[in-house]
Amino acid sequence: MSHTWDVVIVGAGSCGCIAAHEISRSGFEVLLLDMKPREKIGDKVCGDALGTHHLKRIGLDLPPEVVVQDVSGVDTYSPDRKTVFRVGGGGLGAVILDRYKFGQFLLNRAIDSGAELSASTRVLSPIIKSERVIGVKVHGDEVYAKIVLDCSGVGGVLRNRMPDGTIDKELKKSELVVAYREIREIKEDPPEYCEIYLDQIKYPKGYAWIFPHGGRTVNVGVGMPSNLNIKPREYFYRYVMDIPILKDSKAVEKGSGVVPTRRPMDLMVWNGIMFGGDAGFTVNPLHAGGIGSSMLSGWLMAKAAIRALSIEDYSLRGLWSYTPEYMQMYGAKQAALDIFRIFLQNTSNEELNYGMHHGIMKEDDVLKASIDGDLHLSITDKVKRVFIGLGKPNFLLELKRTADRMRDVKNLYLAYPETPEGYSSWLSRAKELQRIIYG
Ligand SMILES: Cc1cc2nc3c(=O)[nH]c(=O)nc-3n(C[C@H](O)[C@H](O)[C@H](O)COP(=O)(O)OP(=O)(O)OC[C@H]3O[C@@H](n4cnc5c(N)ncnc54)[C@H](O)[C@@H]3O)c2cc1C
After folding, report:
1. Do 256 and 297 fall into the same domain?
2. 278 CA distance to ligand 1 middle (Å)
3. Which domain holds residue 12?
4. Could you tell me if 24 and 113 lie in one domain?
5. Which of 211, 362, 404, 434 is deepest in the core (most CB within 10 A)?
6. Angle at the Cα of 101 (from 64 to 194), degrees rounded to 5?
7. CA–CA dist 189, 122 (Å, integer)
8. Residue 54 Cβ contacting ligand 1 at under 6 Å
């Protein structure tokens, strides 16, 4: 009989490394598998921005060499660029990471606490026996574990190979964002805030970003849902490069990436397995930031795994606590923001320009929406007159309906059952809401 690890973690990204560190420092045996060679782990095309509240929540201190610079918040530009929403301070401090050094730091931290790394090892599928995941298939071999964590990123190598009817694994093309990004040297000082640009013609159903990246460099990119069949690189050169600060800039790094933007999985565990990070759909659906929530999910999976190992129950029941804890700390907000994503994707430039100009949401409310998933509106009589004048009275009705649905969905996910017994009635309420929202 081959060795059975306490925990096998597939993927040594931010999710997998946080989980590996927490579990191995509690004295359990962890094997971390990644298809990349060790020196490539952490090398990822990304916007590199991370809200510092994510670090505080899991008690992670970053060494100075992994942080390129601090930023105080985000400026969001309306399509006509006449209105800028500045969201900063009050809990939205952020850092720009040296993404590679950050990845290597998390990896070394996991290894230092006792996790074993098997790099250059591609995982192919879960091994399922008697209705339970008992390990994973790798090239030419099998690896056994009491608990397996799928932290394999957007590809979700185990998630996608779970039998139908076990987990909620569907990712629609409209929920997969494709992005193109460059690091560019610019001729003037970079912006102090991260910048987001909205425009339904230039970046349909998505956005462009320019983030400071240390010295006179910026991280600049554009992302849009994959069902539009747009090549983001083409849109980058056609529409992003016309932003004035990029004039005469020079690319020093280029790359593409994909990221899942959807509501949380209905259930993030099954017998012997848990799903986290991009593999477990933990990304913020509104702005597609997923580093912080991937680390949170890794941290929560570790807590659930340690509990399950201490009572020797690796079943769905033994691992159950992960999903309700995730919903409390992030998933409920994520589910609410997914509704706001859909609303925003279906607004026109005209609606965005007027909505932002007339302050349908105050800057503080935008901050609150991004941190808590609560949408507070300021629909004054003047705003009503403006939208009636535009011939768009339904826009405000739809916005109000969106805010109401966000509140209902958030409350439902906050009431996620603490034990498997409550799941079927919770799920039938969730399905009812999902039918209304997603059709
Ligand atoms: C263009 C772009 C910009 C982004 N900008 C930001 C941003 O500014 N801020 C932010 O917070 N988030 C951002 N994100 C999202 C963020 O990068 C991800 O949400 C986050 O990195 C997910 O971490 P993870 O650990 O789940 O997955 P990953 O970091 O993708 O790690 C998965 C690991 O699994 C390994 N793996 C995959 N398949 C296998 C296999 N079959 N066998 C073995 N190993 C495997 C991979 O090699 C990898 O090391 C961006 C994403 C993109 C694409």
Report:
1. no
2. 6
3. 4-64+97-171+262-327
4. yes
5. 211
6. 70
7. 43
8. no
Note whether 221 and 209 are within 8 A (CB). Answer: yes
Ligand 1 atom with the shortest distance to the CA of 259: 53
| Residue with CA nearest ligand 1 atom 5 | 47
* Domain boundary residue, one of 241, 260, 279: 260
DSSP letter (8 states) at residue 196: E
Counting from 1 in the atom list of ligand 1, the atom nearest the Cα of 11 is 34
Phi, psi of 253 (to 5 degrees): -160, 140
pLDDT along the chain (439 residues), means of 10: 90 98 98 98 97 94 96 92 83 88 98 98 98 96 98 98 95 98 96 95 97 96 97 97 96 98 98 98 96 98 98 98 98 95 94 86 71 77 80 84 93 97 97 92
Q: Which atom of ligand 1 is nearest to the CA of 154?
A: 30
76 part of a folded domain: no
Mutate to test the pocket of ligand 1, among 46, 69, 139 (most ligand atoms within 8 A of CB): 46
Final residue before a domain boundary, out of 274, 298, 327: 327
User: Residue 169, by phi and psi: left (phi above 0), alpha (psi -120 to 50) or beta?
Assistant: alpha
Whose alpha carbon is nearest atom 51 of ligand 1? 46
Position 69 in a domain: no
CATH number of the domain within which 120 lies:
3.50.50.60
CA-CA distances (angstroms) from residue 349 to 27, 138, 353? 55, 49, 6
Residue type, 17: C
Helix axis angle, 14-24 relative to 291-311, nearest 10°?
30
Same domain as 304, residue 222: no
